[in-house]
Amino acid sequence: MKLVKVIDVPVRYKEVTHPKDEQFEMEDDHVNEKLVEIIGDVAEKQTNTQDSQFEGMSIDELKAYAEQKSIDIGKATTEKGIIEKIEEAQKAE
Residue 91 — pLDDT band, cuts 50, 70, 90? Predict the structure, then answer.
């Protein structure tokens, strides 16, 4: 897996549209360096979002939860990105 950053035009990957300058993870063999810049390699180990209390929640449910708790999710648009923002905010409390 690679951590990539959208170069110019929005990139749709795995049913999610990523705007310019957004970073996200992409399978190595899916990388097109005309569309994204490789930031680095992503560790193969799974993050704790798999065991998260938020596992199975839809993006809309996650956004509603964040709004209810007054958590700023910034430009996060993916399930993983939103969960990371929520968990970061909870750790900071």
Answer: confident
- Angle at which helix 79-92 crosses helix 59-68, to 10 degrees, equals 20
Q: Which tokens is 56 given?
A: 């199975």
Query: Out of 8-17, 28-37, 44-53, 66-75, which region has the weakest mean confidence (pLDDT)?
Result: 44-53
What 12-17 contacts at long range (C-beta under 8 Å, 24+ apart), as own/partner pairs, is 16/77, 16/78, 17/77
Per the model's pLDDT, the better-predicted residue between 42 and 75 turns out to be 75
Rounded to whole angstroms, what are the CA distances from 67 to 16, 18, 19, 70? 21, 21, 22, 5
Interacting residues of 57 by C-beta distance below 8 A, sequence separation 6+: 65, 79
CA atoms within 13 A on the CB side of 39: 14
Those residues whose C-beta lies under 8 Å from the C-beta of residue 78, and which sit 6 or more positions away, are 16, 24, 59
